[in-house]
Amino acid sequence: MHRLETARSLDPVSDRIQAVVNGLPVPRGLRDLLHGTKIGHALHPVLVQVPVGSFVSSAILDLMPGTRRAATTLVAVGVAGAVPAVAAGWVDWAQMTKDRRRVGIVHAAANAVAVGLYVTSLVERLRGNQARGRTLGFAGLSVAGLGAYLGGHLAYAQSSGTNQAAPEIVRIPEEWTVAGSLASLPDRKPAVRTVGDVAVLFYRDGDEVSAMIERCGHETAPLGDGEVIGEGRDACIVCPWHGSTFRLRDGVVRHGPAAGDQPTLPCRVRAGNVEVRQP
Ligand code: FES
C-alpha cells in the first residue's frame, strides 16, 4: 500500500482524469449533494451499501437452491445502485491530495471491473445461463473485495473523507484562554492567532467575534488565506484550495467539497481581550 501511495507514475493519468471530472458541467448543488454536504459527512460510503449489500446477498442466494430469480433481482439492484455510488466517488476523488488519488484510482479501477463482471453476470442470467451468471458474480465479488479493501485504506489509513479539523479541538485548552486583544483583530477580515499550539481563525464584526479551527476540515488548507464573502450573520469564509464555504459564526458548511461543518470555538471578550476555550 505504501508503494501505491507513493507511485508517482500514476500521476499523469490521475491528473488528466481529475481535470475531466472537475470540468464536467455538474451544477454546484448536485456536486454538494454528491459530496455529502447536505448530510454532514461523505455520501459515497453511504451509497456503496446498496451495491455491496446486493452483491453479497446475491452470492449467498447463488449457493442456495431455488433462489435464481431473487439472486438475479439483487444483481440488477446492485448494478443500478452502483451508478450514484460511482458518481459520488468520482467527485470526492477529484478533490483529493495526490497520494490519496493514487490509491483512489486503483480503487475505482477495481470497482469498474467488478461492476463490469456483474453487468455481464446479469446479462447471462437473463439469457438463462445461470451457471455462467453465478461464476461471473463470484468473480465480481472477489474483485469488489479488492476495491473495498482499497476504499477502507483510503478512509481509515489515509483519513480521506474525514473532518481533518476535528482532531484539533482536543488541543485547545479547556479553560478560557486569551488569544489576543480585541483591538488587534481587523474588522470583517480573517485573522489567525495561535491558541495552545492550534491555529484559530477569528472574525470580528464590530464587537462580535467568532472563532473556528483554521485548518480546513476538507484537506487542511489555511482558511486564514481564504476570502470572506457575504456579511453580517451570513458572512462566510471560502477555502483557498478547493472552495469549501463555511459560515463564520457557526462553521456550517454552505458548499463542499467539505462535507462536514468546520469546528468552531466558544468565544468571548473580557477586559478588551478575546478568549476562547474548548467546546
Ligand atoms: S482544503 Fe479542500 S476545501 Fe479546504
Description:
With 279 residues, this protein is an alpha+beta fold. It has 2 domains: 2-157; 166-276, Rieske [2Fe-2S] iron-sulphur domain (Rieske Iron-sulfur Protein), CATH 2.102.10.10. It has 8 helices and 11 strands. It has a 4-stranded antiparallel beta sheet, with no helix packed on it. A 4-stranded antiparallel beta sheet has the order 5-6-7-8. Strands 1-11-10 form a 3-stranded antiparallel beta sheet, with no helix packed on it. Helix 5 packs antiparallel against helix 6 (68-93), helix 5 runs antiparallel to helix 8 and helix 7 (98-126) runs antiparallel to helix 8 (130-157). The two termini are 37 Å apart. The mean pLDDT is 96. Bound molecules: FE2/S2 (inorganic) cluster. FE2/S2 (inorganic) cluster binds at residues 216, 218-219, 221, 239, 241-242, 244, 257-258. GO terms for molecular function: 2 iron, 2 sulfur cluster binding; metal ion binding; monooxygenase activity; oxidoreductase activity, acting on paired donors, with incorporation or reduction of molecular oxygen. The chain crosses the membrane at residues 70-91, 103-123, 135-156.
